[in-house]
């Protein structure tokens, strides 16, 4: 039996996942001597902390596969069955405190809610940030819904974006929607695009960055790219150049996987850290001249954008009930847009 948990407990708010999936994946090959038993009962015994109702909800959302085919709760497990399960999220011991915090709601229906998150807001409670988060806000706004009365630390969430990254994310309002969205993240059918400003002039107009991502063995506050695949988790980032601005480049990134600080770590790995990303060295002058006016220009840009230049630009997924393909976009936030305008003006004389 193997169980893969897509869960990282961050040591502080700045190491929460850039866009990591908040689900858990389990896989078993059933023993030869297994007697026939309902799969909901089988999984409730196998998965620590999973209630029978939670397992049944996963089955209703086609999140339980036997020999690569979705089955319902009454399926009888047989010897050598290959079972794969995607559950919405692991449980936490702490409970969330509902707080009346305004958030920018882009879309809402009976099944889900889409939020345009401002930079600086932590997505879910963690060490040092048990209040003031997006989850605290959702727990208040949706407090009449069963999913948000459980007291769990991240009700409705199947992904998140970093504290100082702005942009779009989706939360489920029902257990069924939660499982459906978790399955789409697991199967990589959800499309996520980001806008990033990176140091340097990228060689190619399009590219793919591949490399396992795990914690830096010398600095646990950083993520590291392991080229040889010896550690970390498989990660793939696609990018295309939007505009070349002299000493920096504006790129659009599409995530194939969702790992902690994936875009930030991948671009640092190829020598192009995100502009003003203090965690990965982007808050230094990495390209350009030694002229004092240029240094002042960079410092002014850092003051306008006191965070990494990264924005979750769009999110596309299938609606958990209707199956309709849904697409949501977020405008570039003011701080990042202003810095891009300044770079365009600075680069203009060189073109």
How would you describe this protein?
Helices cover 21% and strands 30% of the residues. The chain has 351 residues and is of the alpha+beta class. Among the domains are: 24-87, RNA-binding S4 domain (Structural Genomics Hypothetical 15.5 Kd Protein In mrcA-pckA Intergenic Region, Chain A); 193-311 and 335-350, Pseudouridine synthase, CATH 3.30.2350. The longest helix has 14 residues, at 334-347. The model is unreliable at 1-19 (pLDDT under 50).
What are the main properties of this structure?
351 residues, alpha+beta, Pseudouridine synthase, 18 strands
In short:
The protein has about 350 residues and is an alpha+beta fold. Among the domains are: about 60 residues, RNA-binding S4 domain (Structural Genomics Hypothetical 15.5 Kd Protein In mrcA-pckA Intergenic Region, Chain A, Roll); about 140 residues, Pseudouridine synthase, CATH 3.30.2350.10. It contains 7 helices and 18 strands.
Question: What portion of the residues fall into strands of 2 or more residues?
Answer: 25-35%
DSSP helix count? 7
Q: Segments where pLDDT lies below 50 for 5+ residues?
A: 1-19
CATH class of the domain at 193-311 and 335-350: Alpha Beta
Tell me roughly what share of residues is in helical segments. Answer: 10-25%
| Oligomer description | single chain
Order of helices and strands: EEEHHEEEEEEHEHEEEEEEHHEEH
Class by alpha and beta content: alpha+beta
Q: Major β-sheet, in short?
A: 9 strands, mixed
Shape, per Cα inertia axes: globular
Radius of gyration: 22 Å
Q: What is the CA–CA distance across the termini?
A: 59 Å
Mean pLDDT: 87
């Amino acid at each position: 039996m193997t169980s893969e948990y897509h869960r990282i407990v961050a040591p502080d708010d700045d190491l929460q996942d850039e866009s990591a999936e908040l689900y858990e994946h389990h896989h078993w090959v059933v023993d030869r001597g297994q007697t026939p038993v309902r799969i909901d009962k089988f999984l409730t015994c196998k998965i620590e902390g999973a209630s029978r109702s939670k397992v049944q909800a996963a089955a209703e959302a086609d999140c339980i596969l036997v020999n690569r085919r979705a089955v319902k709760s009454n399926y009888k497990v047989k010897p050598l069955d290959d079972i794969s399960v995607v559950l919405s999220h692991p449980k936490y011991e702490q409970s969330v405190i509902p707080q009346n915090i305004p958030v920018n709601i882009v879309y809402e229906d009976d099944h889900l809610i889409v939020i345009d998150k401002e930079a600086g807001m932590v997505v879910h409670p963690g060490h040092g940030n048990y209040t003031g988060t997006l989850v605290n806000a959702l727990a208040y706004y949706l407090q009449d819904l069963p999913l948000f009365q459980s007291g769990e630390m991240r009700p409705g969430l199947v992904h998140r974006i970093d504290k100082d990254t702005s942009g779009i994310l989706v939360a489920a309002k029902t257990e069924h929607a939660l499982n459906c969205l978790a399955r789409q993240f697991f199967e990589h059918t959800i499309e996520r695009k980001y806008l990033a400003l990176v140091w340097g002039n990228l060689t190619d107009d399009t590219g793919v960055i591949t490399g396992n991502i795990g914690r830096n063995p010398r600095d646990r506050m950083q993520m590291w790219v392991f080229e040889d695949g010896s550690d970390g988790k498989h990660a793939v980032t696609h990018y295309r150049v939007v505009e070349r601005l002299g000493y920096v480049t504006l790129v659009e990134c599409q995530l194939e996987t969702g790992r902690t600080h994936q875009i930030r770590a991948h671009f640092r790995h190829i020598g192009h850290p995100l502009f003003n990303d203090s965690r990965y060295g982007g808050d230094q002058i990495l390209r350009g001249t030694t002229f004092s006016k240029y240094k002042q220009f960079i410092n002014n840009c850092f003051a306008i954008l006191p965070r990494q230049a990264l924005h979750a630009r769009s999110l596309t997924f299938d609606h958990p009930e209707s199956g309709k393909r849904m697409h949501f976009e977020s405008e570039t936030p003011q701080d990042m847009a202003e810095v891009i305008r300044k770079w365009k003006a600075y680069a203009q004389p060189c073109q």
